[in-house]
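Researcher: I'm preparing a figure for a lab meeting and need a structural model of a single chain. I don't have an experimental structure, so a prediction will have to do for now. The sequence is pasted below. Please return the structure as tokens so I can convert it later.
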Amino acid sequence: MKIAFIGLGNMGGGMAANLVKAGHQVNAFDLSEAALAAASDNGCATYTDAAEAVQGVEAVVTMLPNGAIVKSVYSDSVIGKTPEGAILLDCSTIDVATAREVIAMAEGAGYDMVDAPVSGGIAAANGGTLTFMVGGSETAFSRAEPILQAMGKAVIHAGDAGNGQAAKICNNMLLGIHMIGTCEAFAMAQKLGLDPQTFFDISSVSSGQNWSMTSYCPVPGVGPQSPADNDYQGGFATALMLKDLKLAMEAAVSSGAAVPMGARAAALYEDFNGAGNGGRDFSAIITTL
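Model: Understood. Here is the structure written out token by token.
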């Protein structure tokens, strides 16, 4: 299949490369010359104009920083420029309202489209082991699924347009809450005289067990290797966690949902980010405790 891929950042570059590995012909676009050079090395045809990249393709995949950019790219360079009958897939993490608005625009122009944000981070993007949470019609999902499977280990239909984004921000709000709670527990355990490894051995098989502890432990040298073992470099940046928590807070307001723990997590990550830690892994928040 001939696929245009727009947005070759930390996540998009690896995703586009995996589409090539799966046998697809990929037209790649990004504003960064370095990203385009890397895409070329990975077997993509590269373009310096998004509207040119979508010419003659059967699908368009986008991975962009925010909702405003997603809306602009689809309005200016994708809808009406991509051949009729192509399937459109936005894998960015954006607000639910914008996701639904862009999909409505696409459908109004005769395209099938899904919102398909991801979970898994840079390593999973490079390794093709992402989880995709997909919103859109049954028809759009069935067309998008084979493309997404080339980039991930799990592709889950979350329901109608925008529901992929809803699932993503709810999941990441829970992740932020879990990480802070895990950090608090380890910090208190140490102050009470418990060895961190001993606490891990106990809690990881007890009722306090959670992914932030057993798969992504914030304490260096404890549990499987994580960014904590690399001075909190790599992984999932604090700035990105804060972005997702802000999206969750916006969604909570618009839907009337009560999220006291989510709001507190957002406030704590706001402070941590503001102290110059935006580029550090989000588990580094343990250093404040």
